[in-house]
Amino acid sequence: MVIENRDLRIDYTNFNFPLSITIFQFLTTNFLIVEFRHSNLLIMVKNKSAFRFPPRLIKAMADEVAKTVIKRLPRLISRRKGREHSKVRKLIEDAVFLDTSAIIDGRIFDVINLGLIKGVFVILDSILLELKHIADSKDVVKTVRGRKGLEFLEKLKKKGNVKFTVLSNHNGSALQNGKTEVDEELIREAHINKGKIITCDYNLEKKATISGVLAININTLANVLKVIAVPGEAIHIKILHRGKDVSQGIGYLDDGTMLVVEGASEDLGREIDVIVSRVIQTTAGRILFAKKI
Length: 293
Prior knowledge:
Layout: E1 2-4, E2 8-12, E3 20-25, E4 32-37, E5 41-45, H1 55-86, E6 95-98, H2 100-105, H3 107-113, E7 120-124, H4 125-135, H5 140-158, E8 163-167, H6 179-192, E9 196-199, H7 202-210, E10 214-217, H8 218-224, E11 234-238, E12 241-242, E13 249-252, E14 258-262, E15 271-282, E16 285-292
Parallel strand pairs: 6-7, 6-9, 7-8, 9-10, 14-16
Antiparallel strand pairs: 1-2, 2-5, 3-4, 4-5, 11-15, 12-13, 13-14, 15-16
């Protein structure tokens, strides 16, 4: 596009946003040039001593610039969006997200050391922050648990045959908003990366499952791996305390399974031989009932 009058010629071909104007002159010529940088817009004044912009021309220039900006703005926004999309972080393949409860529990690290779970073990920075707060707690038990969890992660990171990464979820307010918000972030990141969650939290397990994310509860895994005792099997066990019934004695197998022995209340502190009479499966695990031999 070209705008001309007696003393002024505007050659406009391709205006690009943003606008930056520089005015300079060539001392060896009788021209004044106004350049719109980052564009092909040149304003050339033939007689610089008589340089004046007529009001009508100024209005025409302003209208043309405004039209061009409005026309080019959607393209500029789309280019910026394109650049933003290109900066989206790469998804983590075979991601295994560790929850705070599983880290503190510690049993998952034994499973990892056995090589039963493969993939990239991912820790959200909000999970790390939660562990730090637990380790800094005034409660001695919480402090020990928090520090133990951080030590487990440090050992895991140093293992040469294990892939480990800390993922920034860009939500520093998650922990301030409570445990629920941290869980939401964990489920969201696992869903985005098509990964799985390792936890000891029953509620988190169920919520993740509803959200379409695979969640493995370490307590459930432990129950599945417990020794299966069948009715009629003989067991040697130590009676540790009385049961709900005054005549019952309670003992535990090596894997933590409770064994209720009828008529063993007087055998507290002693090891006796019993025979399993029945097995009951509960949400908390198996309970065995037995009779003294």
